[in-house]
Amino acid sequence: MEKLNMNRDFFRGVWKLTKGYWNSEEKWKARGLFGIVIAMNFAIVYALVLLNQWYNEFYTSLQNYDKDSFLPLIGYFSVVAFTYVALSVYSIYLRQMLQINWRKWMTKSYLDKWSQARNYYKMQVIENQTDNPDQRMTEDIRDFVELTLTLLLGFLRQITTLVAFIVILWQLSGVIALPLGSMSLEIHGYMVWICLIYAIGGTYLTTKIGNPLVRLNFDQQRLEADFRFGLIRYRENGESIAFYGGEKAENKNVEGRFSSVVKNYFSLMKYQKRLSWFVNIYGQTAIIVPIFLIVPAYFAKQIQWGGIMQTLTAFDKVQTALSFFVESYATIAQWQSVVNRLVNFTNNMEKVEQIQGETQIKPVQDNNFQVKSLDVTLPTGRVLLNNLNFNIAPGETILITGDSGCGKSTLLRAISGIWPFGEGEVQIPDGHQCFFLPQRPYLPLGSLRDALLYPQENSLVSQQEIKNVMEKCELIHFFDRVNEVDDWSRILSLGEQQRVAFARVLLAKPDIVFLDESTSALDEKTEAVMYKLLKENLPNAAILSIGHRSTLHQYHKQQLHLFGDGSWQFSMI
User: pTM higher than 0.85, yes or no?
Assistant: First the structure.
């Protein structure tokens, strides 16, 4: 099991996660809010000091049957107590305001990093060490911000409490003489020293007992995310699973993931039980220890009842401050696991961002789209394409063929600039728009109109234009629902989704269109209709298609055949 390891590298990681927000455009607002919260915590500690002094006066007045002091002391308590409550309420409120502002900024920052340079895609291709990035940007960021503020402000309050009350406890402790043979050893502030020894011992034992919680908390977060991901996959692929009758296999998979969650949780319970036993015994013992220390002075009539109450309160505050690590160990263990997960996620994003292929996408003044000296490899180093060269003029068509696994789709990835393994040059006519149609189109959450215009947000496209395009693409029966928000990837068949993709092309009017088996779910008649639409509506668009069907040859003039060993052949059809 991994131990709680608060070393220099860990705190470098914490600073790496923290510094962005506190040096951002919101820094003065954040620092000001943080300063107010700290000031309010200092005021809360001062209120506790005033209440500690009140204990002495109040209980002494009770012991002396001083009726005249009773009501003024109750009034004084009411004012201080109300002030304490108000400060506590608003310090929590302002801390939560700071917390949500920090989380909002951090979430946007991580989302930008994840999406920039297509890191979300590269992380799937290049490395597999980041499990469930969605959880990192939701639960882990939320927990990091909340736990960091809670622990930091808690630590600052306890330090302030310690400084304030250790002086009071030192004064109240007086001197104790320990007999050493014929001599005696006088110890000033003896209760402070006993409190310190007690807290150090408790901290040491807490560390020994609670170490496994760090690894277990880390694993629990990962296993819970894996279980949730399994259920999402089950739901998203419901139709395919139903066709296969794969419920038993899927249930076994999901139940296996949940069994891992339960097994780790039982281990977590076991170690938390041990830690809870110790922490509770430690806390209850801390109540009785100062009583034994102060009672002899009371029986010797060296201190009044009010002095006992003030001493016990001061001892409790000092002991609680010194025991911050003991009381917060489980929280610190959870915090460390969250920090480790976020640092790991951040480092992996930075790692894939640095891995850039040598394929250069260049805008040129020429009207032709050109690929020059393009090499494409797999992450394993296997060469798919070697020194590929071709060009395509406006209105021309190329069919890319080859056996499965020869690198046809990977070639399109390299041309688009998202494939980091390869080198060469892709020249795109300046101002020309490229449009890629994968075999399974992506339909975003939202209305059917949003899906038809994706990834554009062109509100200027009229309903009539959309209706015309839907009619051409044989989707007119969905027009009445075009503004309806739903999960359209579930409602539409794969063939209908592919026709939506063609409708997108007609609405976007790109200059170069790449189709990766984009008619695989269409019958030959509908396939012919779709290619005819491209030719009629985009006569000057260059078209590059990937496909296995022999019917595709009639829609293209040239053929690029890939052999999968780096070699290729270009020919006229």
Answer: no
